[in-house]
Amino acid sequence: MLSMKKPGVKSMGNAIEIRGLNWRPGKDFALRDLNLTVPEGAIYGFLGPNGSGKTSTIRLLMGMAKAGSGKIEVLGGSVPEDLRRTLSLTGYVPERPHLYPGLTVRESINFHSTFFPTWDGGWARNLIDSFALPPTAKVGRLSKGEVGKLMMLLALCQRPRLLVLDEPTDGLDPVVRREVLTAIMEYVSETTATVFISSHLVHELERFCDWIGVLEYGTLLTEMPMEAFKNEIKRLRVVGAPQEPPGDLPCQVLGRHPSDGLFTGETWVVRGWEEEMAACFASSGAVVKDVTHLDLEDGFVELLRTARPERWREQATGKEV
Amino acid sequence: MFQQILFIHWKGIRFGLLPLMVVSFGLPLLVVQGLVSGSEDPEVASLAATGMLGALRAWAPLLPLIASIAGVTLALSAWAWDHRQNHVYSLSLPFARWEYVLLKMGGGAVLLLLPCIAFWIGAVLATSSLEIPIGLRAYPTAVAIRFLLTALIIYSALFALAAGTFRTAIWILFLATVLLVSGEMIFDFLGRTIHPSIDGFSFLEWALDLSLSWPGPFEVLTGSWMLIDV
Lengths: 321, 230
Known about the structure:
The structure holds two protein chains of two kinds.
Chain A: E1 14-23, E2 31-39, E3 43-47, H1 54-61, E4 69-74, E5 77-79, H2 83-88, E6 90-93, H3 105-114, H4 121-130, H5 144-157, E7 162-166, H6 174-190, E8 194-199, H7 202-208, E9 211-216, E10 219-225, H8 226-232, E11 233-239, E12 252-258, E13 266-271, H9 278-283, E14 287-293, H10 296-316
Parallel strand pairs in A: 3-8, 3-9, 6-7, 7-8
Antiparallel strand pairs in A: 1-2, 1-4, 4-5, 9-10, 11-13, 11-14, 12-13
Chain B: H1 2-31, H2 42-59, H3 62-84, H4 88-92, H5 97-128, E1 137-138, H6 140-163, H7 166-193, H8 203-212, H9 219-222, E2 228-229
Antiparallel strand pairs in B: 1-2
Helix pairs in contact in B: 1-3, 1-5, 3-5, 3-6, 5-6
């Protein structure tokens, strides 16, 4: 992990708390009873496939849309009641470029800095140099990477307590992506800022997030520290697997399928596995030959694989989703 | 903050605003071109005055038109960049929405002063370049104020309409049209069937009259636009 938290810095509370959030923008999609907690000082990866509701959640956090019901608190202030205060403490990089296209880089920085009393002009000048941004070029004529870097510069130089980044590196080349992520990590390493970053680029989040939340079709499937998530989902190789999972098996079976290659048994993907659970298999005559740790991407895919059939079943039976 | 809001509006509209200022400045000068000035001979002076008033009356509709164009241009340009980015940037700034709208509106109003001042200077120069016939007076400042008020009213109405989404604007215009047309039809029906006393009453004409005469919001458009009058 690239996480570079200041040693000794303790989390003081929650930077973001969402409770019972419901929002339905149209007929097909809804955020349903969303509960989400981002501890202060965390780098929280908000993971989900395209169309899962990540951007919608962020828009609600930023007060750009009004929830049907539920409670949103950002840095101790309610949204939208204390929106002005929360926005003044939040650096935001949206999914799509949002800057005024007719302004130059320098004018955009001047414009943005006016609204934030904590603006760090010296750092902005440094970042212009290190990001190699052309100060007199119009925003509308910048490349995608340059716009991404400019948006990140604006968000960082506010010196926010919370960074809300909506797929900030999507579509950027690896060099620019690394520059942007490095700037974020440098900022986080010297402050206690919280980062809430949404992405579907799993490997990117795995590298530097310490918390993870997985959203699928408006529902939060799981939310936990990154290490716990990675340790929780395992792949088992089972020989002589019973038709039904052992009744006393205390972990959740996410999937099972015949193994390929030389191995003759079955491959099971389970959640909440503990070593002593192998005894449950033994009681039904099965043997657990091998236990593999899954990386974030594999765990994420397995989690979605189990969540999706449930959703399809709900849709097929006409149950509201 | 206001300075920055003003700056981005200026940056977005500057190429449209400069020709507007030129036209606003030049129009009064153009209006008085070829007008015959006063004379010692009362008969000639009377003829000159009549000719002058006739010529000015012919040009008069252009003045509110230019003022309206200034208002429309400033109003639409105020939201152009925000619309293009779905207002995401402005909504992410630490501002109450009403505060941001007021700053935007104020910025546009300040920029609107530029063509109005250009018009006033043009009107003063135009009227001072003439020898005004006896019995007539020049009203450059009064017409310039009327120009400013017209531009401001058109600007405010369009600014409010343009602040929402395109769909909202279409809905508002659609509902206004439905209201006017259905009002006309209802009164026409009532006049022909139930109340013959209101037969001949036109709802459309009434609504138009209401908005174009005092204290209607667009009364300023229909007043005197004569740079020189009795």
